[in-house]
Amino acid sequence: MTMKSLLKGTAVIAVAGALLSGGVARAEPEVELMHMWTTGSGAEALAKVADKFREQGGTWTDNAIAGHTASQYAALRARVMAGDAPTAVQLKGPNIHEWAEAVGLADLSRIAEPGNWSEVMAPALVDIMSYDGHFVAVPVNIHRVNWMYTSRKALDAIGETEAPENWDQFNAMAEKMEAAGIIPVAHGGQDWQDITIFEAVVMGMGLDFYKKAFIDLDDETLRGLEMVATFDQLRKMVDWMDEGMPGRAWSEAAVLVMKGEAGFQFQGDWYVGDMSRLGYEPDTDYLCTTQPTADGSFGYTLNSDSFAFFEQDSEDRQEGQALFAELAMSPEVQVFFNQAKGSIPARMDIDLSDFNSCQQLSAEHLNQAIETGGLVPSLAHSMAQPQRIRSSVMEIVSNFMNTDMSSEDAANQIADAVQANI
Questions:
Q1: What distance in Å separates the CA atoms of residue 60 and residue 53, rounded to the nearest whole number?
Q2: Which residues sit opposite 150 in a β-bridge?
Q3: Distances from the Cα of 88 to the Cαs of 12, 71, 143, 223, 253, in angstroms?
Q4: Element containing residue 390 per DSSP (H, E)
Q5: Model pTM?
Q6: Strands (E), 123-275
Q7: Residue 61 forms beta bridges with which residues?
Q8: How many whole angstroms separate alpha carbon 59 and alpha carbon 278?
Q9: Backbone region of residue 57 per phi and psi (left: phi > 0; alpha: psi in -120 to 50; beta: other values)
Q10: In whole numbers, what is the pLDDT of the chain averaged over residues?
Q11: pLDDT single digits (tens) 237-265
Q12: Taking a C-beta distance cutoff of 8 angstroms, is the pair 331, 347 a contact?
């Protein structure tokens, strides 16, 4: 069911026009932000933005929805259908366009044009943040999802110095870790973590394979031998996870890696922000590298957190929306937000010399991916496909990881689910 059909016939807020009219004073800006960051580096980074907003005389109401993307989007849908949309909301990927098409999103042109957003924003984000020729969302970062983090202590324990570059090397090191009493793969048994590690393995089978499977949604590819091989590799990794996995937060699994009790973990670079907050450092405590690859191809799975706005009758809330949008895209906020979050700025004119080595490597890999055609949107983190497709794939992957489902059945189920939701 599309967003438009879901909301058809429902009294919703009509969003139109620009947020600001010329000369509006910003005496008492207010904003209520609906988002999904309840803990960790995300919450810390956003708290700094809230502090900055308050410094400018604004009133900030934080509306954090526990869970992940699906939980927050369900709460947003209920608010909009009730005619009570939040002033600002965390939206990303195709969901931005779905809301813009279904009920409209505010035209940010009067803020974006003076701020030269089209010039300073990462080119890959411009179309994502725009609808019908104008900006409707503001990005605060660029996350890379397909990282593999390797414990320095675990490597030392098995006599290795470098992270594996291909799956044969990875599997061999995992076996050595298991023999040494180390958990080879750290993981938390939550559905979004399941689809994150699955996406890493898909990328590790080949960039072209990922594009055909989850950008083109090619049925033959989704059912094919390469997808079966993907699930075969994932099954090995599931067998290397520990019994404490169910329900575990990803950050708790990460601490096992830092302590050398686990060897590898697959997460996006919010990992870097959280580990830095806990006092662990790249290179010293862990290595950040691209996931192993079967064919040597290089890719970068893109995730970007962004915010969109629904029109409000209150002048103070309109002022709050404008102030928040300007702050979010400002160089100052882009720097401190991303240094806390572990990501890199959505602006391309930021000096990264004060960012850590993983973040600098992310920027280097982003440029490499843009030059070579290896930049792809993340399926796992709602950038590649609408939520209904992402959710259906996530459910099947989690079922696979928690049952004895065969690789062939998993591949066919994903293909069937995608076809049903196209």
A1: 7
A2: 264, 287
A3: 16, 16, 21, 40, 32
A4: helix 387-402
A5: 0.91
A6: 130-131, 134-135, 137-139, 143-144, 147-151, 183-185, 262-267
A7: 32
A8: 30
A9: left
A10: 92
A11: 999 999 999 989 999 999 999 999 999 99
A12: yes
